[in-house]
Every structure is written in C-alpha cells, then in structure tokens.
Write a structure and sequence with these properties.
Order of helices and strands: EHHHEHHHEHHHHHH
Mean pLDDT: 84
CATH superfamily: Rhodopsin 7-helix transmembrane proteins
Distance between the termini: 69 Å
Largest sheet: 3 strands, mixed
Number of helices: 12
Strand content: under 5%
Radius of gyration: 21 Å
Structural class: mainly alpha
Shape: globular
CATH architecture: Up-down Bundle
Number of strands: 3
CATH class: Mainly Alpha
C-alpha cells in the first residue's frame, strides 16, 4: 500500500504498444494528416488576415477554428509520433497535466465554436438584411472570447481535480495521450467528483450544442428550399451536407468517448475514436469549411499573386 501511494513523477503511455504492426502503419498516416492539418489551417489563418475581403464574421470564426485545430492537434500528436517509433513511452506528471488541460480546453472550445459558426450561418442565410447588425464585430469577439475563456476555466478545474487524486500501481495509461478518462482509471481515491464534473461538462458541450447546430441547419435548409434556382439549391445542399458530415463525425466520436457507460477495461476502440475526432476532423475542417469556398480560393490567388509580384 505504501508503494502504491508514492508520489507519481511520470506516467507510461501504453498507446498501441500491443499492436506493433499498427504502430508502423499509424506513424506515416498520422504524420501526413498532422502536416496537412498544419499547412491547411495555417493557410486559412494567413489568407483571412492578409485579404481584407475576408474581414467578415464567417471568416473570423473560421480563423478561430483553424487556430484551434492547430493547437488541439499539437497538444498530443508530436509526442504520439515520437512514441510510435520509441519503446520508451513516458511523460512527466506535470507534462501529463498540461497535455490533459490543453486538449480538454481546445476540444471543448471546438464544440462551442462549431455551434457559434452554425448560428452565424443561420443568421446570414435566414436574416440576410439584418445580419450585419445582428452579428456585429463586438458580438463576434464576445462569442469567440467567451468560448475560449470559459472552456479554459472548465478544463483547468477538471484537470486539477483529477490530478490531485492518489494514483496506484503501475501508472500505465492505456492510451496514447493523457486522456482524462484513461488517467482516472489509475486513481485509487474517490473519483465521483471528477466524474460528475466531466458528466456535466459533457452534457453542456455535446448534446446541447449538437441540438443547436441541427436546428440551425434545419432552418438553413428550409430557407434554401425556397431558393428558385435549382443550381443554387444544389450548391447550398452540397455545402450544408459537407459541414454536417464533419460536425457529426466530430460530435459522434466525442459523444461515444465521454457519454458511454464507464468501464475499467481499456479498449483499442477508445484510441481509434480519439484518432478520428482529434486527428482526422482537424484535417478535414479547412478543406470542408474553407478551401472549397470560392471567396477563399480567390483570396489565395490574390495573396499568391501579390507575393510573386513583390519578388
């Protein structure tokens, strides 16, 4: 018992250690997706800053989403890539706490930001004449700032409560990152407070925003159906379906992780679903939300043309 309750200095991240063939397949795949995520989202942020035509609420939120995706994936993917090639898969106690807090914060912020973006599109399509007044620059800053700050405070609270628990045994986290549910399985104290915080946070950040997003897109689709042009309806349906596909992929996998019945057994499916919502979705976001957009393509050409002219 005295050995079990010694001060924890580091954790061992099991990851995909039991599947060496899978590790070799995942490394190039995750590296390629991470590079695409960095390049795509950095390009969106750069273009939205450099081209004044994109100084609108829609591209302000898209820029926030791109920054968020870069931060989100960077909290764990670099270390995961190192561990996929290394037999020594350790992380310090402080490093684990920081990683847990940042991934919780950025992931939670993305849940709120996707709902805010759906609200913005709903106003733009359903209330086009009043849209500039309803979605003022001040409101945009307030909504984005509130999402970042509130989710950071929530995540700091959850991390502090979780990491103050006593940990027992081998300190081996059955995951490739310091995911809070995987770390809580190592605690030998009462985890009810931490689990209650997680449940309340999961309810507020998953079903509630997802319902709001679905309602917003239902209003958008009902407005689109009244568009007289068949080509316009097809284009709008294509855009909306692509947005909803990414949203449902993200929310579906996160809901599976955080709202399913708790189990003490580690499952490989938990790690696979984490890869889906934490690596695949940030890679798809710039393609679905921005790079398919005509305005963004024109802005990219303009910025690239200026750069070539300067040379």
């Amino acid at each position: 018992e005295s050995v079990n309750r010694t001060v924890v200095s580091q954790f061992f991240l099991k990851g995909f250690s039991g599947y060496p063939v899978l590790e070799h397949l995942l490394f190039p795949l995750c590296l390629a997706m991470y590079l695409v995520t960095l390049l795509g989202n950095t390009a969106i942020v750069a273009v939205s800053i450099l081209d004044a035509r994109l100084y609108t609420p829609m591209y302000f939120f898209l820029g926030n989403l791109s920054i968020l995706d870069i931060c989100y994936t960077s909290t764990f993917v670099p270390l995961m890539l190192v561990h996929l090639l290394s037999s020594q898969k350790t992380i310090s106690f402080i490093g684990c706490a920081i990683q847990m807090c940042l991934s919780l914060s950025t992931g939670s912020t993305e849940c709120l930001l996707l709902a805010i973006m759906a609200y913005d599109r709903c106003l733009a399509i359903c209330r086009p004449l009043r849209y500039p007044v309803l979605m003022s620059p001040r409101l945009c800053l307030l909504l984005a700032g509130a999402a970042w700050v509130l989710c950071l405070l929530k995540s700091v609270t959850e991390t502090v409560i979780a990491m103050r628990l006593p940990f027992c045994g081998h300190h081996m986290v059955s995951h490739f990152t310091c995911e809070i549910l995987a770390v809580l399985k190592l605690a030998c104290g009462d985890t009810s407070v931490s689990e209650a915080f997680l449940l309340v946070g999961a309810i507020l950040l998953l079903p509630v925003p997802l319902t709001f997003i679905c309602l917003s897109y239902m209003l958008i689709l009902s407005t689109i159906l009244r568009v007289p042009s068949a080509a316009g309806r097809r284009k709008a349906f294509s855009t909306c379906s692509a947005h909803l596909a990414v949203v449902l992929l993200f929310y579906g996998t996160v809901i599976f992780m955080y709202m399913k019945p708790k189990s003490k057994e580690a499952r490989i499916s938990d790690e696979v679903f984490t890869v889906l919502y934490a690596v695949v979705t940030p890679m798809l976001n710039p393609v679905i939300y921005s790079l398919r957009n005509k305005e963004v393509k024109e802005a990219v050409r303009t910025v690239w043309g200026r750069r070539k002219a300067c040379r």
